[in-house]
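Hi Y.,

Following your request, here is the sequence exactly as I used it, all 265 residues.
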Amino acid sequence: MRSRKRPPINGRGIFSGTGIIVAGLTATLLAMIFPIWSYADRSGTGLDVLNADTVPTGYGPLSALDRDFITKVRLAGLWELPAGRQARQKGSTPAVRTAGEHLVEGHAFLDERVRDVAAKLSLQLPNEPSEQQQEWLATLNAAQGVEYDSRFANILRLAHGKVFSVVAQVRASTRNSLVRKLADDANTTVLDHITVLEATGYVDYDALARDMVADSTPPLTPSPAPPGPTSDPAPAVPMTPPPSPGYTLPSAASSPRPEGGSGDS
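Below is the corresponding structure, written out as tokens. Let me know if you'd prefer a different format.
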């Protein structure tokens, strides 16, 4: 008995309806995966666009913003440590002297931390306050009594208020573990200093609000990537950018003295 050839069954193979659907789904999936793979390994995309001067370290990428922040932490201590020591002596109320003590303790701690971080990251730090910071210290040096208390509280409170957002920016964006921990420590210290400065009773909140609105803190200027390891770090830039040159300190009469402050010796 002769076998009959089966007629071809239409629709089988890659050109069948099912094959076309499968091929289409596969192509779509590959198109979705390819951009993710290709962009992940391309320089000049993603986070690299935000931090063009980012350099690799053993603790994670170090951006220009990270380096500026480290420098500013050091500079903050270079002028706020002397200001705190001075307030312990010249403050006419216990609250002002206590605020000075907190500044000394807080920036002594941060200064030790920032030197350690800079050494591990091979960054060099400045050794003296900026010209503007020296002017702020000169302003405090020239003041006495209630005038000193008011100037001290308002200059330092404005400075710490402005840096507060900078610390948050660095903490939220850094990919470096050392910088992240330093930002944590700086955040705790700055908040403590804001609290004790406000507790003096001399902070003029109206003037503070006007100045913060009129002179918002500009973004940190990216610094170029370091060429290589540097010598041991020396001191550096304020983490707490103090009041702007245009800030007019309130008169002593406009800032209420702390309750019970008049009887201090």
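DSSP finds eight helices and no strands in the chain.

Thanks again,
Q.
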